[in-house]
Amino acid sequence: MTQVLAARSGQITPEMEAVAARENMDVELIRAGVAAGTIVIPKNKNRKSVNPCGIGQGLRIKVNALIGTSSDREDLEMEKRKLIIAQNAGCDTFMDLSTGGDIDGMRRLTLSTVNVPVGCVPVYQAAIDAIEKRGSIVAMQEDDIFAAVEKQAAAGMDFMAIHSALNFDVLKPLQWKGRVADIVSRGGAFLTGWMLHNQRENPLYEQFDRLLAILGEYDVTLSVGDAIRPGAVADSLDEAQLRGLAVAGELVERAREAGVQVMVEGPGHVPMHHVESTMLLQKRLCNNAPYFVLGTLATDVAPGYDHITAAIGGALAGAAGVDFICYVTPAEHLGLPTEEDVKEGVIAARIAAHAADIARGNKQALERDLQMAKARVAMDVDKQISLSIDPDKSRQALEEEKGDKHCALCGPDCAAQVAAKYFGIA
Amino acid sequence: MVTQLQSALQGEITPEIEQVARQEGVTPEFIRQGVAGGSIVIPRNRNRDGIVPVAIGAGLKTKVSASVGLYGSTCNIAMEVAKIKAAVQAGTNAIMDLSVSGDIDAMRKETLAATPTPVGTLPLYQALAEAAEKYGSTTKMEEEALFDVIERQAAAGVDFLALHCGTTMDVVERAKKEGRIDPLVSYGGSHLIGWMVHNQRENPLYENYDRVLEIARKYDVTVSLADGMRPGCLADSLDGAQVQELVILGEMVRRAKEAGVQVMVKGPGHVPVNQLKATVTLQKSLCKGAPYFVFGPVVTDIAAGYDHISAAVGGAISAWAGAEFLCYVTAAEHLGLPGVEEVREGVIAALIAAHASDLAKNIPGAAQWDLEISRARKELNWEKQIELAIDPERAGKLKKERSGDSSAGCAMCGKYCAMEVVSGYLGTSKHNC
């Protein structure tokens, strides 16, 4: 039985208990959310020793980090270091997006290294296998795709990004009038190439029930991939994106009917004044399924700093109802991230998520900031370090300052000290 | 001699107005009306020569200011000048010299020489430093000495002066009564409050505000009304003390305009995302559309080490809501003093916030920049992407380091570039997969 079926039958699972404890919430609220489809708990039946993580309405916003090999870098050791760094930096989930070298080996490494939910994009492996075995992506067979889904589900993947909300109807506006950046989703690009070359409908859309049967069997949470996400602010909320979102909404309903946990993936590059509308449309069309967004990036012009453009968009999106934020690293648009880029990306996304949690009135988030403010007033350096988003970084800087309570100017007979006494904080 | 404001009120288009209109891509008449109505300021001291004037206000590109200055024994002038140069090169629109110790006059001279755009200062700092030196305590600062410093800095050519004119005894008492978590956030505000409490005297910048205005008018210095009660933690945002001070600042704005003095208002601080828009709306309403110069705002208290990111979030949303001038926050905020690299990153983060908001506000030219870089991206034209990047140097460096070993143009997708795969089918180029 999947989490959603259990929830609908009124059953409280250990995973729901664990999520309720972490969020400091009544477990009945978690169960009701899972039953209604506003909360998902991605956890494969075959996955052992993972901290269950709830994603959705009323919960703390979660942050996802991306790792994986590529055709240019098949360095498993480096990816392992990234996994550890990102997990220590506080990311809530991972996606393994490997496209190079030993993809199966990388997946095993990811699942055994981290204790949080792990997701993947099975069509990547299907496409890479097709190039190796059949000479090109367009020669990929429909069964290859489903075989990749089944293999990765059996291996224990907790959630899967699957580009089912892509069909010829969605592609039409792109063929009619084009787009500044066309398709920037790699999985979406593979499938679009395959569809146009073979003049065949997207198998993941056409045979959606077949997909649901596999996911249901392992209780893999479906993350409806956004093949058509905007890759430039000029493409945001265009006809193609909205058609894709409408299809995603249909698929959410079908997944729920089949007892499969489901969330929806989205943007991309979104100007700030589109963020709230984007979130509202998704919540409306997808009947409040959890929304998982990349970024969102508030401008196209900042390669080298897209963790910052994404923090701006992510905070706004979170305040407007996004449940799950996929990090963006400073290497975005320029190349593959290093370990340091991965850490920066996780922290920036966590700042956005936390700022949004505060805007949404999350009690734990508000309390942490209040404690930090009090620690600053009390000049309690140890507490400031432990409460900060990156304690190691704060420790390095603050330990030198310990004990120095005076400003740079004057020492004990200082006007600021007089003011402090007046307010009773000296 | 008349000020920019007085000229604008007389219907005159000054050379400064002509120049900023060209820079902004708007008509000189639009700028003139903004200056006359007080929604735009052009901070430019009459005694300052050879600078590029910068306009700050409604309908214009959001501007960014970087703060430097001598603070304690570890600082020196050469180091601060290096920071100014880095900030200018990164694209800051203004510099504030916030020196609190050392040879403040010499530092200001260097700042004015190294900055091609407006320079601001906070005269109270120097008055406090000189009192400390002369009498051994900042509580002994003399009122007359404070106004002497204001005049000295204005005569030296400083374009805008930050002055805590609204931090009155009434406001201070409210902060105490309502139990602010962190009543001592602003360095100047804290010392000023200490001075007021110790001497049992009202704030001289409030009581003798006309004197401030007289000096400002004489040199056409733009007054930046600083807030002693800016929130230093989320819990204090929009509390009674902050709002009461803002009400007083609104009154100060009116009096400045009546005196023919250009004026803007300085604000937050630490502000939660859900209070940013309200904060800006209140300022716009109470201060009758005067430009809003906000510090950050940072959107959480816990992001020490990353407050430039936290501030980019708050700055972008605030500027979208109507703030026109962003004071950068560096990654060193809450931890120590920034180095050159942190200054540069702080400026870029603020510029990102400024541009993101310009895009959302549909400021002329903003969307075009994004369109051009995205077209270059689609064409896989790396040279153009780097050239159009907000920080071409860093973009070029990262491209080289993160894709140096790539068989394809970019290592991100390597052989499986989404843009390439799809353009084969949707575009005109021949498919290859």
Task: Write up this protein.
The complex is a heterodimer of chains A (426) and B (433). The termini of chain A are far apart. Chain A contains 19 helices and ten strands. Chain A has an eight-stranded parallel beta barrel, surrounded by eight helices. A two-stranded antiparallel ribbon of chain A has the order 1-2. In chain A, helix 6 packs across helix 7 (142-155). Chain A has helices at 3-8, 14-23, 27-36, 76-88, 103-113, 122-134, 142-155, 168-177, 186-198, 203-206, 208-218, 239-257, 272-285, 306-319, 339-359, 363-377, 381-387, 391-398, 415-422, and strands at 39-40, 55-56, 62-67, 93-96, 118-120, 159-162, 221-224, 262-266, 291-294, 324-326. Chain B has 433 residues and is an alpha/beta fold. Chain B folds into two domains: 4-361, TIM Barrel, CATH 3.20.20.540; 366-426, no CATH class. Helix content of chain B is 51%, strand content 9%. In chain B, the strands form two sheets. Chain B has an eight-stranded parallel barrel with strand order 3-4-5-6-7-8-9-10, surrounded by eight helices. A two-stranded antiparallel ribbon of chain B has the order 1-2. In chain B, helix 16 runs antiparallel to helix 17. Chain B starts with a helix and ends in a 7-residue tail after the last helix. The chains are: A alpha/beta (426), B alpha/beta (433). At the A-B interface, helix 9, helix 14, helix 15, helix 16 and helix 18 of A face helix 6, helix 8, helix 9, helix 14 and helix 15 of B.
